[in-house]
Design brief:
By secondary structure, the chain is α+β, with helices and mostly antiparallel strands. It has two domains: 101 residues, Alpha-Beta Plaits (2-Layer Sandwich), CATH 3.30.70; 61 residues, Roll (SH3 type barrels), CATH 2.30.30. The chain is built from four helices and 16 strands. Strand 12 and strand 13 form a beta hairpin. The N terminus is likely disordered.
Amino acid sequence: MVDEHGYADSAPSRPAGSKWYVIRAKPRRERYVSEQLSRQGMDVFFPAVRVNPVNPRAARERAYFPGYLFVYLDLELFGVNKLRWMPAAVGLLEFGGEPAVVPEALITQLRRRIANIQAAGGLTLVELAAGDAVEITAGPFAGYEAIFDLRLKGSDRVRVLLDLLRRQVSLELDAGSIRKARSGGMVKSGRTRK
């Protein structure tokens, strides 16, 4: 069955009590968890994008949200424990002990965003030039703004310059852990201020 956006549902029908939930997966095991859920007849959305790595042996596909994927199911019928004990799964994303429900509109937006990235040929850092402001999106410096310096040869890593303790510090990061900074942000002590 194909929805109005052209996406195939892996589930034949959608039970009335079903909602979108976020499943946490072990590192780099999102595809495996997605396949397990699909085999059980679940409607699964695993946002992954093509990447153009410098290293020819590096993965050509990466999770858009590393460690997370989405599943549409009736939690009362399926059961939370099945998700907790599924191989390579960590369980549902919860807040205050309650599973986080994701609005259908957000899933639709994410699918469009992933489709746009794929149509553009995947994720690349070609739009970044030395001196461009970038935001660090993962790791201990997530949320900090830095200056893009260069892409390291033969790897999927980059070097950025971060203002820390009134000094400019050079950091080497995974290329997927930065993005071009949004305009309008002001840097103060490395942290993005809005």
